[in-house]
């Protein structure tokens, strides 16, 4: 398992251990792959994720855009992933019903000293785009967190900081 994947999963575990919004809304989120700047996920749709017409609620897509954008920042070695400054989503087609699996790829499109920009593409099991979100984060203070690490370019190894197994 790559260092980037281990680290991103560790940050996700800290979200869940906090027992806040993420733990309540999508505790079954699975992180499949993480390389610096890109993370792939899946979520099995549950009844609590639906709107009144029986399809994935837009609020779930926005919440996932927030969380997955944060984990895209984490995939670059940031343990603290900053705070949101802007977020939005576009809905292309219904994203699924109970029992379906929603797939997502979160990409860190740019990161400077104070802001990070992410995009999350959501697809159904057939690979069709169902929604996409964007997320801007203020990362200025989080970039000096002592738990941060630096990865090799491919994300396979930690080259600075502690690689906690």
* Rg over alpha carbons: 15 Å
Query: What is the N-to-C order of secondary-structure elements (H for helix, E for strand)?
Result: HHEEHEEEEEE
- Largest sheet, if any? 6 strands, antiparallel
Query: In percent, how helical is the residue content?
Result: 10-25%
The counted number of beta strands is 8
Q: Tally the helices.
A: 3
The overall pLDDT, averaged over residues, is: 95
Work out the strand percent.
25-35%
**Multimeric state:** single chain
What spatial order of strands do you see in the largest sheet? 1-2-4-5-6-3
How does the helix and strand content classify structurally?
alpha+beta
What's the overall geometry? globular
Uncertain spans: none
> What is the distance, rounded to the nearest whole angstrom, between the alpha carbons of the first and last residues?
10 Å
Can you walk me through this structure?
The chain has 165 residues and is of the alpha+beta class. The chain has helices at residues 3-17, 21-25, 58-74, and strands at residues 30-35, 38-44, 83-91, 101-111, 115-123, 129-138, 150-151, 158-160. The strands form 2 sheets. Strands 1-2-4-5-6-3 form a 6-stranded antiparallel sheet. It has a two-stranded antiparallel ribbon with strand order 7-8. A hairpin with a 3-residue loop joins strand 4 (101-111) and strand 5 (115-123). The longest helix is centred in the middle third of the chain and has 17 residues, at 58-74. The mean pLDDT is 95.
């Amino acid at each position: 398992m790559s260092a980037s994947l281990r680290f991103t999963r560790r940050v996700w575990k800290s979200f869940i251990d906090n027992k806040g919004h993420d733990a309540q809304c999508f505790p079954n989120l699975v992180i499949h792959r993480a390389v610096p700047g890109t993370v792939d996920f899946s979520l099995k749709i549950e009844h609590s994720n639906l709107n009144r017409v029986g399809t994935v609620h837009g609020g779930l897509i926005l919440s996932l855009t927030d969380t997955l954008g944060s984990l895209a920042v984490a995939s670059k070695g940031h343990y603290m992933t900053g705070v949101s400054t802007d977020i939005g989503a576009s809905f292309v087609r219904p994203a699924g019903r109970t029992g379906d699996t929603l797939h997502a790829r979160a990409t860190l499109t740019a990161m400077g000293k104070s802001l990070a920009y992410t995009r999350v593409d959501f697809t159904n099991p057939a690979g069709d785009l169902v929604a996409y979100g964007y997320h801007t984060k203020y990362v200025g203070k989080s970039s000096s967190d002592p738990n941060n690490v630096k990865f090799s370019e491919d994300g396979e190894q930690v080259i600075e900081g502690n690689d906690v197994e």
